[in-house]
Design brief:
Blueprint lengths: L4 H27 L3 H29 L18 H9 L9 H27 L3 H29 L1 H19 L1
Helix pairs in contact: 1-2, 1-4, 4-5, 5-6
Amino acid sequence: MGKHDRTFEVICTVLELKEKKLAQYAAGMKACRTRIGVETFKMLHDTETEHINHISKMYEELKRGEASPDACRLHKAESPDWNAFLLEMTSGKPDRESYPEDIAAIEASLRMEGASIEFYKAELQDLTDPVEREFLQHVLDEEWERFILLDDLRFYYVDSSRWFIEKGRPIQARADAAT
């Protein structure tokens, strides 16, 4: 077994799961009837595409021996302010209409994110190399961020008035106070 075989195996698995999620996000964009749903899935799709490109480049460099396993270290990207994004998308008004297609797409993506999270958690238990563990922990953290974003979006669709009470008003009050 080569020096970096386990690293390659971990990276390949991550890429495979990310490709499946990319397809799920593309399907979500097509299924959603609302601008909020489409834009959310577009944002997730674009972010996942960036991650895939970065990890693929890193993998190829490792295969060619042009990079050390330290190349597996990912830098934390700045997460968008989800509440601000949703407030902007909704113009600060609760939506009174239900969109079952959007909710179904969100729930399918939540299931995929949840399965990825469980898989990565299990994989982390088996890894001993600190660089591999750091890489996979970073990927796991990103999965949690997406899961939370999608769960929050589902909350908005299911009960937008309550979402605005719990999540929207404090942000709007801060925005109003700043102006």
